Every structure is written in structure tokens, then in C-alpha cells.
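Whiteboard transcription, Tuesday session. T.W. wrote the C-alpha cells on the left side:
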């Protein structure tokens, strides 16, 4: 299976844009932008090729894991 998002572009030329849009939607809803399983489900729901079960090495947004933890902590205060 592909190890980078760029490699997935061979089967899905739009994956980078789809990933960006999906992350923005998740971010505005306060959801985890680093959830590979949810991203995979999203792709298949819109008819895109299955990217596989394994997360690519460059899937996670830098700093987003920390941002999500901060968001969760803020919401519980």
C-alpha cells in the first residue's frame, strides 16, 4: 500500500484537495483531523478509491493533535 499521500495520487488525483477539504470540515466541527479511519470512510462515501487501512506517513497535520487536545480541554472547562 502507498506510504505517502503523493503515492496515493496515482489512484486518486484529487486526494490532496479531498484531504484538505475534509480536514477543514472536521476542524470546524471540533473533530479529529488526524483520524485516518474517518478519512478513509469519507473517501469511499464520495466514490473515491479506497486508500487502504494503513495511514500514510504524511497524513497527520502537524500540530493538530495538540490543537485537538487543547480544544477538548477547553470544551470541558
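and on the right, the sequence the group agreed on:
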Amino acid at each position: 500500500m502507498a506510504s505517502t499521500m503523493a503515492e496515493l495520487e496515482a489512484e486518486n488525483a484529487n486526494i490532496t484537495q479531498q484531504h484538505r477539504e475534509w480536514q477543514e470540515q472536521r476542524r470546524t466541527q471540533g473533530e479529529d483531523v488526524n483520524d485516518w479511519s474517518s478519512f478513509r470512510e469519507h473517501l469511499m462515501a464520495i466514490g473515491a478509491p479506497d486508500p487502504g487501512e494503513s495511514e500514510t506517513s504524511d497524513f497527520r497535520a502537524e500540530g493538530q493533535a495538540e490543537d485537538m487536545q487543547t480544544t477538548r480541554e477547553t470544551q470541558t472547562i
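Someone added at the bottom: Residues 65-72 have pLDDT under 50 and may be disordered.
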